[in-house]
Amino acid sequence: IGGRCDGLYNRWMSLVDACSEQSRALEEARDLLTFRQLVDRVLSWAHERELMVTASDMGRDLEHCKLLIDRLDGTQADSSVDEQTLEQINRLGEKLIGQGRTSREEVQQQQQNLNQTWNSLQGKLAAYRRQLSAALEVHGFNRDVDDTNERIHEKIAAMRSDDYGRDFATVDALLRKQTALERDMSAIHQKLIAHDKDAQNILAKKPPLKNTILDSLKKLEESWKELSQAAELRNECLDKS
Questions:
Q1: Which domain of life is it from (predicted)?
Q2: Residue ranges in the chain assigned as alpha helix (H)
């Protein structure tokens, strides 16, 4: 009876050991599956970010640039992956490596590649953020210049009116209106000086899209020249009236 009991006990202990081993194997399989899924998710996220960085899109205008910034870090950004996700992967990877099973080398390689990809991408993202911030300032400047240019063309349209008065009273009224327009021109000219100073300050930072600043200033200069000529011609016509 004692021998049979010993045999049963040994078989029982073997079964317990087998169950424990099976449990550890299942836990490792679960952890390995989770590890691989997380790695795939982070790499997919990193690939999308890499495409954004590689495209180096600075935006077509102010609104588009703001949208790009929002997609990168704002409300439209993919927040499914962050530093905590990477920490979770590294903890899981260290656990799997520590178990020393057949998946050890695979996990080590994937973990190393993932961390290298992550660190490299963070540097690229930081540089892209700085570029977008600089581009936003450029777009803001160009928007202000466009507003001033629109004001100039409103004055040009007023200067090109073919109404030169029918009698002394109407001519006198038009002359007063012309004087008011020329006061507006003085205010606009001060705005042009301010734009030029702003442009020099921004260009000193060597921003992206700097050619658009030069184009905006050139367009503004041409519009101002057109306005000055229109004002001179209208003054001559009103004097003749």
A1: Eukaryota
A2: 2-55, 62-73, 83-99, 104-159, 168-203, 210-240
